[in-house]
Design brief:
Layout (H helix, E strand, L loop, with lengths): L1 E3 L4 E7 L6 E8 L4 H12 L4 E5 L9 H17 L3 E5 L3 H9 L5 H17 L1
Parallel strand pairs: 1-4, 4-5
Antiparallel strand pairs: 1-2, 2-3
Helix pairs in contact: 1-2, 3-4
Length: 123
């Protein structure tokens, strides 16, 4: 499962059964139900590992959003116990918009780009 974390919403993607390709799934509001929704998706889809975009600024250093991502990752670890990996996510939203235009699935497509990047490196 791949996640493109945002302060207002998260993009979610899943890999195929072989773990070689990622596909956009949905966009989820970042609200007080977020952890429960993510936990339900993990259980429902049988997720065994999670890949979260690591947010870097143009200077290559973690930006302000990364602190929230670290907290989110910690909460997910406490609730599910599954391994979490981080993948640099610089410009994934822009890449998703370039490929498909801006629409409701842009963040989910960015999550798929993050997950595909991780899967490609892990093969």
């Amino acid at each position: 499962m791949g996640i493109d974390y945002g302060t207002k919403k998260l993009g979610v993607a899943f890999s195929d059964e072989t773990g070689t390709m990622a596909f956009p799934h949905d966009t989820i509001p970042n609200d007080d139900k977020l952890l429960s929704v993510i936990e339900s998706l993990i259980e429902e889809k049988g997720v065994i590992e999670l890949v979260i975009g690591y947010s870097l600024g143009r200077d290559g250093l973690p930006n302000a959003v990364q602190e929230a991502i670290d907290e989110f990752a910690g909460d997910i670890t406490l609730r599910t116990g599954i391994p979490i990996h981080f993948e640099p996510e610089q410009y994934t939203t822009q890449e998703a918009m370039r490929l498909q235009g801006k629409n409701a699935k842009t963040d989910a497509s960015a999550a798929a780009i993050i997950l595909n990047s991780f899967l490609t490196r892990s093969v």
